[in-house]
Amino acid sequence: MERSNENFKDGFTLIEVLIAIVIMTVIAVISTNILQSSLSSREFTNESIEKTKQINLASNLVRRDFRQSINVPMRDFYGEPMKATFLSPEESKRMIFTILIRRKSDETSRVRRVEYIFDGGSFLRRQYYAGNPYSNNDYSESVLFENIEDVKLSFSDGSKWFNSWPLDEITQRAIPKLIQIELIQNNKSIEWIISPKNDHVYQQ
Predict the structure, then answer these.
(1) Which pTM value belongs to this model?
(2) Residues 116-145: tens digit of each pLDDT
(3) Rounded distance, CA 164 to CA 142, Å?
(4) For a tag on the chain, would you pick the N or C end, based on fewer CB atoms within 10 A?
(5) Is the pLDDT of residue 104 over 90?
(6) What's the burial of 151, exposed, middle or buried (CB within 10 Å: 0-12/13-18/19+)?
(7) Lowest mean pLDDT: which of 86-95, 117-126, 149-158, 193-202?
(8) Cβ contact 162:152 at 8 Å
(9) Could you report how far apart the first and last alpha carbons of the chain are, in Å?
(10) How many of the other CB atoms lie within 10 Å of CB of 118?
């Protein structure tokens, strides 16, 4: 007795289905890896662009301040002479000097005090509203960098580098020839060497 073929229909065998599932799984894994790689690459690129933008903005701001620096004596918040036209005490992680800004109003002075300081893991810029302010809270503050591990400041008199300024009675009336700022973050460093281009010594 011959078996009828009517009960048999075209279809996939179990082995063919398993092979198809394996192939689809491999394709899905490869596609997922490519997508994750693309997203990671995009995120890394965006982070790099933002970091570069941040560095450029901070660099332009710092260099502008030193281009606008003026060599005049400063007073503390009690009105006493600071015996410096540029001040960075040893191990203080800060710089204080005076700049001449563009005039916004005839009623306000163009002279401002600027302070760069490393505080609480951030590198900050503070601009006081006067050249010799009477209040240590009378300033506006900008955060240039966050999550900074350390800041190293160095100053050159034209022949040697020092960790503080001023050095003596002569340098009390002068701004450093060169200023080096090094920010350390995630075992990497951002370094600037700036020439204030203010060569004259203040004459009393």
Answers:
(1) 0.75
(2) 999 999 999 999 999 999 898 999 999 999
(3) 23
(4) N
(5) no
(6) buried
(7) 193-202
(8) no
(9) 127
(10) 20
